[in-house]
């Protein structure tokens, strides 16, 4: 790649983000308008509300990104946009906006798979610390609110699906159990913070190993957590409504739940890395911001001789820079889209 400047648009779920990325690695601007506070009231994302919020924030987000990047349209090589997977209404806002920018300014349009963006966040340079590029072959774990899967990469843009969730994504399980524990939305960061305060670490939740496969399952864990929490609340004094659990008990339950999720994710990823002869392990997706998961996987990967490459937390959650990083590779490979580009809400990254 030689000096390509990509303006990238991401709107697959509840973050409106526009970035300017150079050579798929250097971030000139990466602006994110978050909807977390808006969706906290309902304890989850309402698709219609998310789409309307994208419409509200996408132009101000572009203006701020443009100011931060300090470039002109003459400098831009192409416009990239997430085409899927994601919420249909949210995707369409970003796609139509990107198509308009590409048409008005005479720039090629590059479609990007959102999941590929999470992978290529690992190639973004990090000004805050040294971050080596991943080495092939590698195994990547992508874990977020909507997706949990393992892939093997032996070269750029080449994927072999090793395993995926057969029911719920890990991030969704964090959100649901966080709500059951009475914690604010989103549940993942709150469970991590609450679990850190646990004095006793003797709560054990089940692990779904699914035999020797690399697949994941978190539905049973959610059910076990719901029954445990309901049972403990029923043991409290009768008040006419379910009483809140004591803070120390919430911390212990959060710890036990988090341990179950992290144990399965780390164990399967390290086993996959060994089987694939991986030289690197990549971690991406919103749940990759979980410090316990990052530390546990880093220790295991280091011991196995295949270091972990994980972006800083702000690049793990949805953002335009990761779309720009993936788009640079897609651009080099000749990927282009016309003005008939449409949303693909169920777009896979790879198939078995």
Number of DSSP E strands:
10
Shape: globular
C-alpha-based Rg, rounded: 21 Å
Q: What proportion strand? A: 15-25%
Helix content: 40-55%
What's the CATH class label of the largest domain? Alpha Beta
Helix-strand pattern: EEEHHEHEHEEEHHHHEHEHH
Number of domains: 2
Main attributes of the structure:
352 residues, 11 helices, Nucleotidyltransferase, domain 5, alpha/beta, 5-stranded mixed beta sheet
Describe the fold and architecture.
It is globular and about 65 Å long. The protein is 42% helix and 18% strand. By secondary structure, it is of the alpha/beta class. The longest helix has 30 residues. Strands 3-2-1-4-5 form a five-stranded mixed beta sheet, with helices on both faces. The chain has a five-stranded mixed beta sheet with strand order 8-7-6-9-10, sandwiched between helices. The protein starts with a strand and ends in a 20-residue tail after the last helix. Helix 8 packs parallel to helix 9. The model has no long low-confidence stretch (mean pLDDT 94). The protein folds into two domains: 142 residues, Nucleotidyltransferase, domain 5; 173 residues, Nucleotidyltransferase, domain 5. It has eleven helices and ten strands.
List the helices and strands and how they pair.
Elements: E1 5-10, E2 15-22, E3 26-34, H1 36-40, H2 47-69, E4 78-84, H3 88-105, E5 109-113, H4 114-120, E6 138-143, E7 148-155, E8 158-164, H5 170-180, H6 187-195, H7 219-234, H8 247-276, E9 280-284, H9 291-303, E10 308-309, H10 313-316, H11 320-332
Helix pairs in contact: 2-3, 4-11, 5-6, 5-7, 5-8, 6-8, 8-9
